[in-house]
Amino acid sequence: MENQVIETNADVTVITAGELLSHWQGHRKLSRKVLNAFPENELFGFSIGGMRTYAALAKEIIGLTSGGISGIVTGDWSTKPELDYFDTTADIKSKAELLAAWDEVTEQLDTLWPQIPAARFAEVVKSFGQWDNTVIGTIQYVMDNEIHHRAQGTVYLRALGIEPPAFWERW
User: Fold this and answer.
1) What sign does the dihedral 96-98-101-107 (CA atoms) show?
2) Among residues 34, 102, 90, 31, which one has the least CA distance to residue 63?
């Protein structure tokens, strides 16, 4: 057994860039459904245990997605629309504005994604000017962050007595 060669499939491509974008956009569609399920007054005012409101969490998702795709493609890690997604009192003040910003970033993602050359996914970048990571690692971070915050929103909705969208309703 000590000389046994174990074959693995570690180097097999299992997802294309287009499939990854589709996967990400599926998560974004579900996160938008969670956002849309909030009554406006609760969206900007309700939280549990000192956590941020879902409006603040959604702004972070918007900012990370926008800044992330822009940074990966252009090297400019700023957000479009420009917003301070950690400032809960500035920028976006209504559910309609939040949904419009969400949709603007969805379009930005669809526009910029095809501009990522295949080799770029393996390159190391200084993500958001903060830490070194591969492009694919940065994309995974942004998606994981969104899923994490969407889960918080789901808990908020349940606490408000609102049935959240099912987690598998990504399409």
Assistant:
1) negative
2) 102
User: What is the extent of the structural domain holding 64?
Assistant: 22-114+121-159
Q: Which residues pair with 36 in a beta bridge?
A: none
What is the pLDDT at residue 45?
Answer: 93
Q: How many CB atoms lie within 10 A of CB 168?
A: 8
CATH number of the domain encompassing residue 92: 1.20.120.450
Q: What share of the chain is helix, strand, coil (3-state, %, to 5)?
A: 60, 5, 35
Average pLDDT (11-23) is 91
Closest alpha carbon to 112 in 66, 81, 170: 66
User: Does the annotation place 23 within a ligand binding site?
Assistant: no
Whether 69 is covered by a domain: the verdict is yes
**Cβ distance 132 to 78 under 8 Å?**
no
CB 15 within 8 A of CB 133: no
- Cα Dmax for the chain: 65
CA distance 16 to 37: 32
- Bin 78: left if φ > 0, else alpha if -120 < ψ < 50, else beta: beta
pLDDT tens digit sequence for 130-163: 899 999 999 999 999 999 999 999 999 999 999 9
